[in-house]
Automatic annotation (TrEMBL):
PROSITE patterns on file: G_PROTEIN_RECEP_F3_3, G_PROTEIN_RECEP_F3_4
InterPro entries (UniProt xref): ANF_lig-bd_rcpt, GPCR_3, GPCR_3_9-Cys_dom, GPCR_3_9-Cys_sf, GPCR_3_C, GPCR_3_Ca_sens_rcpt-rel, GPCR_3_CS, GPCR_3_vmron_rcpt_2
Name of the protein this chain belongs to: G-protein coupled receptors family 3 profile domain-containing protein
Domain (G-protein coupled receptors family 3 profile): residue spans on this chain: 574-838
Keyword Repeat: no
Entry's localization field: Cell membrane
GO cellular component, one term: plasma membrane
Transmembrane segment boundaries: 574-597, 612-632, 644-668, 688-707, 733-756, 768-788, 800-824
Keyword Nucleotide-binding in annotation: no
Any one Gene Ontology molecular-function term assigned to this protein's record: G protein-coupled receptor activity
Bilayer topology annotation: Multi-pass membrane protein
Family designation: Belongs to the G-protein coupled receptor 3 family.
PANTHER family listed in its UniProt record: C-FAMILY ODORANT RECEPTOR OLFCD2-RELATED, CALCIUM-SENSING RECEPTOR-RELATED
Length: 843
């Protein structure tokens, strides 16, 4: 039979390759397995068994410095183990469904090929022929028709997949690869049972050529893996590039097991090349070694264009020299519940599989078997270990690309089995050949991905265009910037959603300006924040511009906002407090006037010149109320009113106090024998003196308002971020003349009161005037530096405080003692009492 003949030929080839170490002389095509069968890493029984082959372990050099002397070491790939567990997860998920294979249990037998072709072939024979150690062509075809597995998922690499596909094709067992991309595997004459869920490199090569053409790169370099994957992929790319009119400066090949001299030669070709764009059709292991070699003597910046094996591998993001790299990868996906499945691993579950045991012990550096006394001194796991705490490729589900291909492959086989054995009512467990059904598979996964195969066993080629870009924290990350879909019409397959970033410096955002970095090209620059008071409202601004005087930048410094206007407004807390004191002072003055008026015939009121006292109380009331003119938004009228009202009312007040002081002195002189001085300073003269003093201030104010009056002014200098609305003095001479005149009268009043301080007690008002003038002068002397140094609205507040403080000083020192006697000591408010005090003093 044809199947037997093919087996005889292929077994002969295996014997020549050394896989069947001995053959019988009596029957030259009979052989015995020369080694023990390989035990599965993960397995579960079922009605139908699906085989799985993954490169969970692979050989690699850990130290580039000992490249020529250090042997290859077997290392566990957490990513490939994740692929294997994706198959396991999918089978458990299928077994729990009622709409797919009802009443049927799928099993699995997953093996590790260690990335070795010989091991992959051995495992394939084991899966196809059970674990029978003897093969003999005299056995009936039915023996070999009863394969141990229904289908096989794997391998990840193209080279082992090619060998597996030849063997499985002879047995008629379908193979569905999640990661073998070699275009050669689409040949159904050589590989009739091969299928894959990842697109062929034929499409990827065409997409890469279209990408290079899109950016106008016509002079490029090329480097590839010296393997079936790299050689076939690059051959397809070079053909497509030639059709697009792209010239290739060099095309170099390298494989990680080759001598270091070959690696150095390839690296030097790249360094000396004039092409700044390089297409790398390399497997991950080869690409890693090449980049590490290039880091020894970095070339000029290159634009890397990568194949799907490394362009989406997170382990390569540490190579900043590849920033800006672009390439096509299979679409990113989400598998609901898969991450929880991976993390749901306990020591008890791990012990059921040697692969999971190794993962646990390597990840936590402890022994699950409790061999604390082992030669390597590994501690025993104590139960504090949790998979959730790990950040390793096994637990990384952020980039489920190839993992999803495994997931799709498992479901494709399950749907093929369902189509072969199930009808509307039941499923038959006896049928195991599903090859024809697999060709007709066409369904949509629950995560939205379509699963189907064309006549060559390939899926529809859909890629994401990946660009390596820097994040805000300075780390590289994958960004999807476009798509390639082979199902679309010719010329429309390739589309870009955004232009890949390939810049020396990121664009400067509004609020910053560009500053070229010293000694670097013009494309390299720093983004400098705009200076205080400046903005830039465009991206990549060369300069910042000043805001108008009445505006100020916002926090981002990308627009000008109106400056807030500051003045002592009525709703300000400070204004409310000052208003309360002003009104209280005016009320006090009115109350004292009422007390004096009610007791105007009493000796103490008459003895202290009641007419001037009432005029003084009236002027004090005006002094308290004039402080209110300083509150509120400054205007032309309010600015003129506040200063003139203050100057005139205070001169009126001081004139009254000065008149009272002169009266005291004149009255004492009049008591001397032969003195008639009081007739020269009687009430008419007192009124005239007050009027004269006040008219002088009125004249000063009129001149001030005529020549250069106060006016509202927007002060932009004191604060940069806000406007101070204040009253400018207009003429500083006028202001200081008004203030100086008040000070002159106050000083004169203080001197006269001081001279009269030792007069008899019935004329002791001079003492109180002395104290009041002392307070008055102290307030206004301290006012001057406070007024000059206070900013903004506080300048006005200081002036109001000086007015109120001096007014309260006058009313309290002059009138409080008299009111106390009138209200609380009426027995002392008698002429007899006053005269008695004089007599006692005379004695």
């Amino acid at each position: 039979m044809q199947l037997t003949l093919n087996l005889m030929i292929f077994v002969s080839l295996l014997w020549m390759a050394g896989i069947c170490p001995a053959a019988s002389k009596a029957n030259p095509v009979s052989c015995r397995l020369g080694a023990e069968p390989q035990m599965s890493g993960l397995s579960m029984n079922g009605d139908f068994i699906i085989g799985g082959i993954f490169s969970i372990h692979n050989y690699m050099r850990l130290d580039q410095n000992t490249y020529n002397t250090r042997p290859l070491q077997l290392q566990c790939s957490g990513r490939e183990l994740r692929f294997a567990r994706a198959m396991e997860f999918a089978i458990h998920e299928i077994n729990n469904r009622t709409d797919l294979l009802p009443g049927i249990t799928l099993g699995y037998e997953i093996h590790d090929s260690c990335a070795a072709v010989a091991m992959a072939i051995k495992v394939v024979f084991q899966l196809a022929n059970s674990v029978d150690p003897v093969f003999n062509d005299s056995d009936s075809c039915s023996k070999y028709g009863a394969a141990a597995v229904t289908a096989v998922i794997g391998e990840s690499g193209s080279t082992p997949s090619i060998s597996m596909a030849r063997i499985l094709g002879l047995f008629g067992i379908p193979q569905v690869s999640p990661y073998a991309t070699c275009a050669c595997l689409s040949d159904k004459r050589q590989y009739p049972a091969f299928f894959r869920t990842i697109p062929s490199d034929h499409h990827q090569a065409a997409a890469l050529a279209r990408l290079v053409k899109h950016f106008g790169w016509t002079w490029i370099g090329a480097v590839r893996s010296d393997s079936d994957y790299g050689n076939n992929g690059m051959a397809s790319f070079l053909k497509a590039a030639q059709e697009e009119g792209i010239c290739v400066e060099y095309s170099e090949a390298y494989y990680r097991t080759q001598p270091r001299s070959k690696l150095e030669r390839v690296a030097n070709v790249i360094r000396r090349s004039t092409a700044r764009v390089i297409v790398a059709f390399l497997a991950s292991g080869d690409m890693r070694i090449l980049l590490e070699e290039l880091l020894r003597d970095p070339p000029r910046p290159l634009q890397w264009i990568g194949s799907e094996t490394w362009i989406t591998d997170p382990e390569f993001l540490r190579f900043n020299m590849c920033s800006g790299a672009v390439g096509f990868g299979v679409p990113r996906s989400v598998i609901p519940g898969f991450r929880e499945f991976l993390l749901d691993l306990t020591p008890a579950k791990a012990l059921k599989s040697p692969l999971l045991t190794e993962l646990w012990e390597r990840s936590f550096s402890c022994s699950l078997k409790g061999k604390t006394g082992s030669s390597d001194g590994t501690r025993e796991c104590d139960g504090s270990e949790h998979m959730h705490a790990l950040q390793i490729p096994y637990t990384d589900t952020s980039q489920l690309r190839i993992t999803n291909m495994v997931y799709k492959a498992t479901y494709a086989i399950a749907h093929a089995i369902h189509g072969a054995i199930c009808n509307d009512t039941q499923c038959d467990k006896t049928t195991k050949f599903i090859l024809d059904q697999l060709k007709r598979v066409n369904f949509t996964m629950k995560n939205g991905f379509q699963v189907s195969f064309d006549s060559r066993g390939d899926p529809v080629a859909v890629y994401e265009l990946i660009n390596w870009q820097f994040k805000k924290d300075g780390a590289l990350d994958f960004m999807t910037v476009g798509q390639y879909d082979s199902s679309k019409h010719r010329g429309q397959e390739f589309s870009m959603s955004r232009v890949p970033a390939s810049v020396c410096s990121e664009s400067c955002l509004p609020g910053t300006r560009k500053a070229v970095q010293k000694g670097k090209p013009i494309c390299c620059y720093d983004c400098i924040p705009c200076a205080e008071g400046e903005i830039s409202n465009l991206t990549d601004s060369l300069d910042c511009v000043y805001c108008p005087p009445e505006s100020w930048p916002n926090e981002r410094r990308d627009t000008c906002l109106p400056k807030p206007v500051e003045f002592l407004s009525w709703d300000d807390t400070l204004s409310i407090i000052l208003t309360a004191f002003s009104v209280a002072g005016a009320f006090m003055a009115v109350s004292v006037a009422a007390i004096f008026y009610k007791n105007r015939t009493s000796p103490i009121v008459r003895a202290n010149n009641s007419e001037l006292s009432f005029l003084l109380l009236f002027s004090l009331t005006l002094c308290f109320l004039c402080s209110l003119t300083f509150i509120g938004r400054p205007s032309e009228w309010s600015c003129m009113l506040r200063h003139t009202a203050f100057g005139i009312t205070f001169v009126l007040c001081i004139s009254c106090v000065l008149g009272k002081t002169i009266v005291v002195l004149m009255a004492f002189r009049a008591t001397l024998p032969g003195s008639n001085v009081m007739k020269w300073f009687g009430p008419p003269q007192q009124r005239l003196s007050v009027l004269a003093f006040t008219l002088i201030q009125v004249l000063i104010c009129i001149l001030w308002l005529t020549i250069s009056p106060p006016f509202p002014f927007k002060n932009f200098k004191h604060y940069k971020e806000r406007i101070i609305l204040e009253c400018r003095l207009g003429s500083a001479i006028g202001f200081w003349a008004v203030l100086g005149y008040i000070g002159l009268l106050a000083f004169l009043c203080f001197i006269l009161a001081f001279l009269a301080r030792k007069l008899p007690d019935n004329f002791n008002e001079a003492k109180f005037i002395t104290f009041s003038m002392l307070i008055f002068c102290a307030v206004w002397i301290t006012f001057i530096p406070a007024y000059v140094s206070s900013p903004g609205k506080f300048t006005v507040a200081v002036e109001i405080f000086a007015i109120l403080a001096s007014s309260f000083g006058l009313i309290i020192c002059i009138f409080a003692p008299k009111c106390f006697i009138i209200v609380f000591r009426p027995d002392q408010n008698t002429k007899k009492h006053l005269m008695g005090k004089v007599q006692s003093k005379a004695l």
